[in-house]
Write a structure and sequence with these properties.
Layout: E1 7-11, H1 15-19, H2 21-31, E2 34-38, E3 44-48, H3 51-58, E4 63-64, H4 67-77, H5 89-92, H6 102-113, H7 116-120, H8 123-138, E5 143-144, H9 145-150, H10 152-162, H11 169-181, H12 185-208, H13 214-220, E6 222-223, E7 226-227, H14 230-261, H15 263-271, H16 276-287, E8 294-298, E9 302-304, E10 307-309, E11 314-317, H17 319-322, H18 357-374, E12 379-380, E13 402-404
Parallel strand pairs: 1-2, 3-11
Antiparallel strand pairs: 2-3, 4-8, 5-13, 6-7, 8-11, 9-10, 12-13
Helix pairs in contact: 8-10, 8-18, 10-14, 11-12, 12-14, 14-15, 14-16, 14-18, 16-18
This protein binds protoporphyrin IX containing FE.
């Protein structure tokens, strides 16, 4: 085993990389499945691209999510004024940035409040919101599917589920956008402070006036006499809202892009809308929306894919690359809504497996079924070949998707 063979200073995650995401991941996977690369701002990361390695890494306790350790590596490698993401300490101390036992404790408390029953009970409301958005679309000859449909649906659902006032929803969208996209540290810092302040007020309000929503359930959630502190509540709600804002949005939009690019697939779904559940899994596998990869940190040396990653390194588990590994998914570059996409890693794997997976699936299935039934002849307004992707390491999403909503 060697650590030197896999050392390259190949830049990763620059604008070209994001634009050509899957081809670039495929090159890395074919050449050196575990490779040390460098981000545009000079941060070294070890990139894992094979399915088997990625799945094993996600479940390996030697790989930590502890955010303070990752920050130490950033501080060692980047000058203090470098352009990396700023985030407020209180918001970042949520369970996705923690290892057991802290993670186990927090996840237990939120799982108690975020039950399958609570998610399934949302079905009629999600159908109602979807129908309203489709009605609005039907009045126009051309719309941006992101603005008119893919954005408002999940945002409304997560805001209602958690209990965010209607009047603050636009603020929320603006804050999360700034936090996820900004390379401007001041803007991101200001958005984090504004959000933390609003969440503090919201928690106080729900304490005084409990409601039938997730935030009230989280406030009340207890496990062996344990409950969430105020600081933990803020970080948890922040995680849920950010995850609930930008994820399903891009699952819907990326999926529709591929369905429109391949008219046979759209026709198959139109002929049999019951294919929708499998279609959503294939959409997740083929072009998952957020986190085309996720960070970990080596707490000790880690042998993986024939190399040994030393302790104290940042590891990037390439979920999008793993989901197109031909060893796992035959003909992975073919988008096929009837294939068995089971086992994809778009929601992660192991103890941090996405808490919102059931909700995201439900929303995407309702959205897609609604769209194909209401607008069976939906077409793109413009070329689908030069779709523009947003530039972000966290999100894999389009800037816009102009479509012509046409009925039967
Ligand atoms: C974790 C993807 C929607 C809440 C994760 C992880 C992935 C992921 C890959 C694991 C990250 C890691 O291990 O480092 C997605 C995708 C979604 C989606 C692709 C939509 C298509 C949602 C929604 C919510 C949510 C709607 C909330 C309502 C969470 C939470 C975690 C998480 C709380 C952290 C779990 C933990 O640390 O134990 N998600 N997510 N996600 N997701 Fe999602």
């Amino acid at each position: 085993m060697s650590t030197t063979e896999a050392h390259t200073e190949v830049p990763v995650f620059d604008a070209d990389f994001v634009h050509d995401l899957h081809a670039r991941y495929a090159e890395i996977r074919d050449a050196t499945p575990v490779q040390r690369m460098v981000t545009p701002n000079g941060l070294p990361v070890w990139v894992i691209t094979r399915y088997a390695d990625a799945r094993a890494a996600l479940a390996d306790p030697r790989l930590s999510k502890e955010v303070t350790r990752i920050r130490d590596v950033i501080a060692e490698n980047l000058p203090p004024d470098s352009d990396h993401r700023a985030f407020d300490e209180s918001l970042a101390s949520h369970m996705l940035n923690m290892d057991p036992p802290d993670h186990t404790r927090l996840r237990k408390l939120v799982v108690k409040a975020f039950t399958s029953r609570r998610v399934e009970a949302l079905r009629p409301r999600i159908e109602q919101i979807t129908a309203g958005l489709l009605d609005d679309m039907a009045e126009k000859s051309e719309v941006d599917l992101l603005d008119a449909f893919a954005f408002p649906l999940p945002i409304q659902v997560i805001s209602e589920l958690v209990g965010v006032d209607e009047s603050r929803r636009d603020d929320f969208r603006a804050w999360t956008n700034t936090l996820l996209d900004a390379s401007d540290r001041d803007a991101a810092g200001a958005a984090a402070v504004a959000m933390a302040q609003y969440l503090t007020e919201l928690i106080e309000h729900k304490r005084r006036q409990p409601a039938d929503d997730l935030l009230t359930a989280l406030i009340d959630s207890t496990e062996d006499q344990d409950r969430l502190s105020d600081k933990e509540l803020i970080a948890m709600v922040f995680l849920l809202l950010v995850a609930g804002h930008e994820t399903t949005v891009n699952l819907i939009a990326n999926g529709v892009l591929h369905l429109l690019r391949d008219p046979d697939q759209w026709a198959a779904l139109r002929a049999d809308p019951d294919l929708v559940a499998g279609a959503v899994e294939e959409m997740l596998r083929f072009d998952g929306p957020v986190m085309h990869g996720t960070f970990r940190f080596t707490a000790e040396p880690l042998p993986v894919g024939g190399v040994e990653i030393p302790a104290g390194q940042i590891v990037w588990v390439g979920l999008a690359a793993a989901n197109r590994d031909p060893e796992q998914f035959p003909e992975p570059e073919r988008f096929d809504i009837t294939r068995d996409a089971h086992g994809h890693l778009a929601f992660g794997h192991g103890i941090h497996f996405c808490l919102g997976a059931q909700l995201a699936r439900l929303e995407a299935q309702i959205a897609l079924r609604g769209l194909v039934e209401r607008f069976p002849n939906l077409t793109a307004a413009g070329s689908l070949d030069d779709a523009q992707w947003r530039f972000s390491t966290l999100i894999h999403g389009l800037r816009a998707l102009p479509v012509r909503p046409t009925g039967g």
